[in-house]
């Protein structure tokens, strides 16, 4: 049922994938994408998708993170249509598992509705999170979307209220079901790195809803889905993820041994290699 909704309703996923692939090809012309200019040093990174999110959408970013030496993984958001609290349970389990496996807090990079899950996770479990980067995420309003998408979400909410499994219901938006989730979405953010990247040409999310007062804001000229393949977004990630990676201690390098140069008369004298 949910798979059919993805194919039939939410902004033409086949077209989105085609545009993503073209954006990925263009991104490959950027040398900083092919050779990431930072050392991830094994930093675990949880990638959190939003509405109609499928794994292929994060593939360009996942491969780039691996080349940088990070340890990326995808959160199980299941298209992003489900109840907020049920989805949060899966995101939290992924965070806990990655933190336990790698022995360190996890960086979270999230797109669209995924940014809401990332923010709430950081508020509830700051000890598990190294920092958050939200891409085109409505952070100050749960349903700050275009009119077409709001209409689609209303139909999904009606279906969920009537009992269709794995869909949000009206209780998630206005009732007791996700009351804590809505509260944590606007709660003070802990003292962690937190960046919200937005575009004023976003036709899916109202861009002003990305301006969480607790976040550092970065503007990029692209589309909503283009956030996942835009070179400027990757440059922002370099800066932010580098700040979440512990600085390695410097190692003193001993000076090179002097070169021994033979002189006339059979004597030998030490001479610096650069002399």
Task: List the main descriptive attributes of the protein structure presented here.
single chain; 275 residues; alpha/beta; Rossmann fold; six-stranded parallel sheet; two-stranded antiparallel ribbon; 10 helices; 8 strands; 39% helix; disordered N terminus; disordered C terminus
What is this structure, in a nutshell?
Helix content is 39%, strand content 14%. It is an alpha/beta fold.
Task: Produce the secondary structure layout.
Layout (H helix, E strand, L loop, with lengths): L1 H7 L4 H15 L3 H4 L9 E5 L10 H9 L3 E4 L9 H19 L3 E6 L2 H11 L4 E7 L11 H15 L8 H5 L4 H7 L8 E5 L17 E4 L11 H14 L14 E4 L5 E4 L4
Parallel strand pairs: 1-2, 1-3, 3-4, 4-5, 5-6
Antiparallel strand pairs: 7-8
Helix pairs in contact: 5-6
Question: Your description of this structure?
Answer:
With 275 residues, this protein is α/β, with parallel strands linked by helices. It has a single domain, classed as Rossmann fold, CATH 3.40.50. It contains ten helices and eight strands. A hairpin with a 5-residue loop joins strand 7 (259-262) and strand 8. Helix 5 (84-102) crosses helix 6. 41% of the residues are buried. Residues 1-11 and 248-275 have low confidence and may be disordered.
């Amino acid at each position: 049922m949910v798979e059919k909704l993805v194919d039939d309703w939410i902004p033409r996923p086949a077209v989105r994938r085609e545009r993503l692939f073209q954006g990925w090809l263009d991104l490959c012309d950027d040398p900083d994408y092919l050779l990431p200019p930072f050392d991830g040093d094994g930093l675990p990174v949880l990638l959190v998708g939003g509405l109609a999110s499928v794994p292929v959408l994060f593939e360009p970013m996942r491969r780039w993170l691996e080349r940088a030496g990070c340890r990326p993984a995808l959160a199980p958001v299941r298209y992003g249509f489900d109840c907020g609290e049920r989805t949060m349970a899966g995101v939290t389990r992924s965070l806990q598992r990655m933190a336990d496996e790698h022995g360190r807090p996890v960086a979270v990079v999230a797109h669209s509705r995924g940014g809401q899950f990332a923010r709430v996770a950081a508020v509830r479990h700051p000890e598990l999170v190294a920092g958050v980067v939200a891409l085109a995420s409505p952070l100050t309003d749960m349903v700050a979307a275009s009119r077409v998408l709001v209409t689609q979400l209303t139909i999904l909410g009606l279906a969920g209220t009537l009992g269709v499994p794995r869909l949000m219901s009206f209780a998630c938006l206005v009732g007791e079901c996700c009351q804590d989730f809505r509260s944590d979405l606007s709660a003070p953010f802990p003292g962690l790195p937190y960046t919200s990247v937005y575009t004023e040409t976003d036709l899916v999310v109202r861009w002003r809803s990305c301006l969480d007062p607790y976040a550092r804001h970065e503007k990029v000229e692209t589309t909503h889905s283009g956030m996942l393949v835009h070179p400027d977004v990757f440059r922002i990630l370099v800066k932010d993820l580098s700040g979440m990676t512990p600085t390695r201690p410097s190692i003193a390098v001993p000076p090179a041994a002097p070169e021994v140069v033979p002189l006339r008369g059979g004597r030998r004298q030490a001479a610096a290699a650069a002399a």
